[in-house]
Amino acid sequence: MDTKRLFKKLGKAFLLSWYYSLSLGIVFLIFVFKAKNMDVSGSFSLWLTVIFPIDLFYGSGAAIVLTPFTGWALRLENKLFLIYGAILWIVSSAFIVISAASRSASFILLGALLLTVVGLGAIGFLIKGKRANAFLP
Predict the structure, then answer these.
(1) Distances (CA, A) of 24 to 10, 80, 105, 137
(2) How many domains are contained in the chain?
(3) Which residues have CB under 8 Å from 91's CB, separation 6+?
(4) What is the 3-state secondary structure of the chain?
(5) How far apart are CA 4 and CA 66, in angstroms?
(6) How many angstroms separate the CA atoms of 65 and 39, rounded?
């Protein structure tokens, strides 16, 4: 694989990981603030000063951690990645929503990160299996 193609794949993997992490971070922060009985719907200054900086910081860190796993799951560039990725996002956000009321924040963050890594591994193997079976008669 040439260098240009490698950097293109890494860039795509990082952008997908970053989008995934930032969007799940917003879901997480909304439910954390709602669990603490803080209204986040009308306060634009709260979004600008608290929610977005926290989400950018931790979401970017999680994206850096998730980029190798996302790149591995994307190695075959199958269109099924988009479908499986959306399902993984829904499962991860459901995990955050369900456990936000009863668990600590660190449990939710580590659980969602572990769920994502395991899900990306499963996606990588599912896509590999679908790609290999596509050429069978």
Answers:
(1) 21, 21, 13, 41
(2) 1
(3) 115, 119
(4) CCHHHHHHHHHHHHHHHHHHHHHHHHHHHHHHHHHCCCCCCCCHHHHHHHHHHHHHHHHHHHHHHHHHHHHHHCCCCCCHHHHHHHHHHHHHHHHHHHHHCCCCHHHHHHHHHHHHHHHHHHHHHHHHHHHHHCCCC
(5) 21
(6) 31
pLDDT band at 128 (very low <50, low <70, confident <90, very high): low
At residue 100, what is the residue type?
A
Give residue 78's domain range.
Answer: 3-133
The tens digit of pLDDT for each residue in 4-54 reads 888 888 888 888 888 888 888 888 877 777 766 666 666 666 666 777 888
Tell me how far apart the alpha carbons of residues 2 and 6 are, in angstroms, rounded to a whole number. Answer: 6
**pTM score:** 0.73
